[in-house]
Amino acid sequence: MLLMIDLSNRHTFKLPVQAQALLEITSSADCETLDWQAPFVIIGDGSNTIFLADYPGTVIVNRIKGIQITAQDDYVEVRAGGGENWHQLVSQLISKNIAGLENLALIPGTVGAAPVQNIGAYGVEVAAFINQVKAWDIKLQRWQYFDANACQFDYRNSLFKRHPGRWLVTEVIFRLPQQWQAQISYHGLDSLAADCTPQAIYERVIEIRNSKLPDPAQLPNAGSFFKNPVISVSQYQELTREFSNMPSYPVSADEVKVPAGWLIDQLGLKGYRFGGAAVHQQQALVLVNLHQASGDDVLCLARYIAAAVAEHYSIQLEPEVRLFDRQGQLLEQL
């Protein structure tokens, strides 16, 4: 099969791979006319996706745009097309003094990917602000609306992520409360004044992210490669007997979240390299394309890290990024 479409500029890790075809959809009507029987992959900005090998199918790019803002008594409703850039949406809302999403500034990707991944940062998850998701059901060939409960949101997870290739998110409807409360308890924001503005939080988040995370335009990467693992409180207490300074964040009465970057950093893996792929020197949670990396380089490096963490801490890391090879998406376990 002849592969003709270069994907290196369609995913921010910039591996030199190709696809059989590429198609951009710009309206909801496009979803109803596509041939969904052939192999396909859906992407947005490609910031949370790594193509490890040539893909013998069609890469479908969500470019559905449009933002509508309606103020109500208790909330502001924001309807955004799935192909809108996430950070640009957050920036536009902040410029209009519409608060709520400021903690999620500078997260790469599109609006359509936000509910799929249930993106989150600095103590806030997007699920808290989603009222509805409009999606095309590829299997049943019909439109569906999902309220927040139907989305089955979990930590970096959702109904859409659990069933890859089933739905294409074309629009997300947010409700941002008029009565705003600053979320600044997370490390890095806790030095802000209690009466700080949404603009101040927005600027601080951007400052922190820029200081910690490499710019994909300068050093190709896909952001946080691994999820922060969620473990039981009893397992965490057992681990702190040996690793007394292990940080954690409460998830529930029975579970805590442990920073994957800390686990990797404590193993001395910053800068560790396999072929052209490496662990970033400043942020251990980020893998980078240091020099002409191959898909095998990335996968071998990720598996080495996951195996080292499992051996040392008995914690299983899972990828946060979406990984695709010739057969399609690699799911969860490396």
Radius of gyration: 20 Å
Total of domains? 3
- Globular, elongated, flat, extended or rod-shaped: what is the shape? globular
> In terms of quaternary structure, what is this?
single chain
What is the CATH first-level class name of the largest domain? Alpha Beta
Low-pLDDT stretches: none
CATH architecture verdict of the largest domain: 2-Layer Sandwich
Tally of helical runs: 8
Report the average pLDDT across residues.
96
The counted number of beta strands is: 21
Q: Give helix % range.
A: 10-25%
Estimate the strand proportion: 25-35%
Q: What class would the helix/strand composition place it in? A: alpha+beta
Q: Ends: how far apart?
A: 28 Å
**CATH topology value of the largest domain:** Uridine Diphospho-n-acetylenolpyruvylglucosamine Reductase, domain 3
Largest sheet: 5 strands, antiparallel
